[in-house]
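Suppose a colleague, Dr. K., hands you the sequence of a protein chain of 327 amino acids and asks what its three-dimensional shape might be. Before reaching for any lab equipment, you can write down a predicted structure in token form. Begin with the sequence itself:
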Amino acid sequence: MDLGRHLRYFLVVAREGHFGDAAVELGIAQPALSQSVRRLEAELGVTLFDRSRRRVRLTPAGRLLVDQAREVVAGEARLRETMRRVRDGGVATLRVGVPPGTSAVALRGLLDGMAGEVPDVTVDVGAMTGAEVVRALGEGSVDTGLVTAPFDGSGLVSEPVRRVEVGAAVPRGAPLARAGRLELADLAGSDLVVASRAEAPEWFERVLAVCREHGWVPPRVHEAEGTEFLSGLVLAGRGVALAAEALAAREPRLAWRPLAGAPLHQRTEAVRPERGAHPAASVFARVAARVLAEPAGGADPVAPLGGGTDGRPWSLVYGGGAIPQPG
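The predicted structure, expressed as tokens, is then:
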């Protein structure tokens, strides 16, 4: 029995809630899909779907299977990709995803550090948001990467490499810029400007939760993709940004003020698969912690929260939908 294939089919039906729609997505005939699911049910000895309605629903056994099926399917994908790389001589290459806003100095430090630690391993670097890194790790298309915490770490191992305080960024001439330290409640009535939910969904929800806990419920939340766009919205008076101090260091027309009690910190973590990780992935975490520990000259070496992509100092050496290609 091809368990991996049957589980993949099961997951598509579970997501679509309809055998016909799932068959169209998979590009197979509906009878073949139904037969595959029935074979899986027979193999496991349980009923996975309630077929009494037009749109099928998962049974309790089906709901329990979903998460485990995802792990099996992802593990099979990683296994196949690893074996392909062994066959093609690619294990000597470590594929890394870093935030689009990573500075030239930090990137050089990461590459030089890896060259010093594991000179026989080639490091291929691509610009990816945290969500893209997590997804690519599950698919086996990267080996490790830098992600803003919190994130969905199912099946992943993470090591902290950097932690910075998050404060409020406002136009330099705004009344709030005169304060030495701000309470989040002081921002009541102001809109919030924050990196988009798509870039770091768990962090996005964390920011909103902390704002509510401290007495600030923004009338509107403006999602920004990229540091330049985020800074532009603040300068245009669209709201207050919650970001690291480096945002204001890049834009002299912005002022950064710390938050009382420092309720928010931006944590960057190096992540890798829990199972079957590349041998050099743990080395990358160690190098990243050393390189990113002390920003040079006040500059932010990595900007995972809305980091811009302009002026990237390196070539993207592997492609795919998750990695923006230079225009």
